[in-house]
Structures are given as structure tokens and as C-alpha cells.
Amino acid sequence: MTAAPATMQAMQFDGPGQPLRMVIRPLPEPGPGEVRVAVRACGVCRTDLHVVEGDIHGTLPIIPGHEIVGTVDALGPGVSGLALGQRIGVPWLGHACGQCPYCAAERENLCDAPLFTGFTRDGGYASHAIADARFCFPLPDAFDDCHAAPLLCAGLIGYRAYRLAGDAPVLGLYGFGAAAHILAQVALWQGRRVFAFTRPGDTQAQEFARALGCQWAGGSDEAAPEPLDAAIIFAAAGALVPTALKAVRKGGRVVCAGIHMSDIPGFPYADLWEEREIRSVANLTRADGLEFLPLAARAGVRTHVEALPLAAANTALARLRDGQLTGALVLVP
Ligand SMILES: [Zn+2]
Ligand SMILES: [Zn+2]
Q1: Global pTM value
Q2: How far is CA 264 from CA 173, 218, 222, 325, in A?
Q3: From CA 232, how far away is CA 253, in angstroms rounded?
Q4: pLDDT digits (tens, 9 = 90+) for 154-170
Q5: How far is the CA of 109 from the centre of ligand 1 (A)?
Q6: Which CATH number fits the domain 7-152+303-332, given the four candidates 3.90.850.10, 3.40.50.1260, 3.30.70.2860, 3.90.180.10?
Q7: CATH, domain range 156-280
Q8: Farthest CA pair distance, the chain
Q9: How many whole angstroms separate alpha carbon 304 and alpha carbon 298?
Q10: What residues sit around ligand 2, an ion, with C-beta below 5 angstroms?
Q11: 45: CA distance to ligand 2 center in Å?
Q12: For 78, left (φ over 0), alpha (ψ -120 to 50), or beta?
């Protein structure tokens, strides 16, 4: 009698216009330098929505999900620094080449030959995932599995955007979802004043922002009550770029934190004049993660999450699209 082969289950994406579907695959073995992760929770990120809606194009078919919390359940040859059973996080940057000019300049977020978890290598909408061991992070004990998941992209890439916004005592956040609710807490802990801009009429998100300690919350169609030192745009609406530019003071900076945005409408040069800046943020470096994750614990960040079963991935994506949630959604296999 032979034992049934070990398998894993995953929600697979075959192409734009098609819902994710549950698949059963043989349990993969980690290659050199890789680990196999038994997934405990995987956050649902707006980037996943951009993937399934065809706004950005990666490998197909693909298992989405790049906010993975799990335990190491198999080690490939040559892995050091991770142990069987250890709890780790797997982020969006799944691999960088280590040799291109960007990697050599400590800008691996811009690597010429990267792999992205849940986009160009299979991710965490699954019971198991394979990850490059060098790109996994240890996770602070302060966060349980579901509450840790949104830190791995919303938190981490949000933090990179926050860092690049510079020393801004008065900070505006446009789009108050998973990333903003985390970064608002970090900013407040650091003594900054935070102004939250939501979809017009989204009083629930505005109340949520005020409950977290934001000084002001209103619709993105409302004028800021005072000039902002910097603004971070987490929403995918390009029209917010000229809006935010108008809200920042002389020398202020607008940081676009998403991987995809609708087109940015034209605007008068006078709105950019006086050394205002617009910049984007791409991906993350491992240094960002090693800095941010312990900081989130020190700052006492509390992520607001709602857990759904893995099989409900399509529902989770639909709810994210429709904006029907507070904080972040997390899939549990
Ligand atoms: Zn590289
Ligand atoms: Zn993400």
C-alpha cells in the first residue's frame, strides 16, 4: 500500500476576467536556498486586485498573495538562518539578483531581474508556498498571524513611502485603507499630526481615522484645514496627484505609494512651482523590512483585520474593489 502523495491547495489566477479557482497541486519541494512555508495567513492587497483586473501583468497562471505569514516546514539545500518551525513573513520582493547596478547600490527594490511574490512567483493564497530564504523576515511576537499579515506589504511598502515623504510634521494620507491605517499609527506615535482624506462621503473611514488619532478626516474633495508638509497617496486614483499637490506647502512632497494608478490629469505648473515634488515608491528592500517590523511592534501598531477562509478569495477581492471594509482582509487556509 502506498501513501497518497502530499498535496497543497491554492487559489489560482489564470487570467484577467476569470475568477480565482481552487486547485490541488503536489506539495512542492524547496530548491537550493529556498524554504517551504506552511501558510497560516495571507493578507489581501490592492496590488492583488490590480493583478486580477489586468492593470499589471505578471506570470500566468499565478497564485496571488504577498503578505504571507507562515512557518518553515521544509528547508532546501544551503539555507542558513532559518529553522524548521520558525514563523516568518514573506513579502512582495521575493528575490533580487544581487548583481545589477541597483542591487549593488543597495537599491534592490529597483532590481533589473527581480521576482515578486504572488506576481512572478507563486504566492500565499495557498496552504503552502516556496520562498527564497534570504527574502523572508522574522516576525515580532507582538503580532499574531492574522494581525501580522498586513504589515508585510501595506505596512512595509507604506513605511517606505512614509520614509520617503521625509520629515513632515503635518502629514496627509489620501486613501485610508490597509496601508494608511498602519502608517497613521506610526506617524502619530512619532508625534506627527495626521490628516486623513477618504473617498468623498465615506464617513465610516473618516470615523475610523479619527478613532485612531488623526487630527482631521474628510473627503478627498475637501480642502485640507492647513497646508501639509507632505502627502502620501495610497489610493489608485491619479486625479489625487494634483489634488494633493495643491494641499502641500512650498517645498512639500507628494508620494505615490501604489504600483498602479489611473492617469494623472494635467495641472497648472504653478501647482508644482516653489519646489514641490512628486515621486513614486517601488517595492521594498530587505532593509525596509528589518527596520519597519520591529518598529511597528515598538509603536504598538494594532492592525484591524478581518479573516476569511482561503476559498473566499474572490469575495475578499470584490470587497476590496468596492471599498466595503475597514482595515485589511486576511485569508486563512
Ligand atoms: Zn538586481
Ligand atoms: Zn501589496
Answers
A1: 0.96
A2: 18, 22, 19, 26
A3: 8
A4: 999 999 999 999 999 99
A5: 8
A6: 3.90.180.10
A7: 3.40.50.720
A8: 78
A9: 17
A10: 45, 47, 153
A11: 5
A12: left
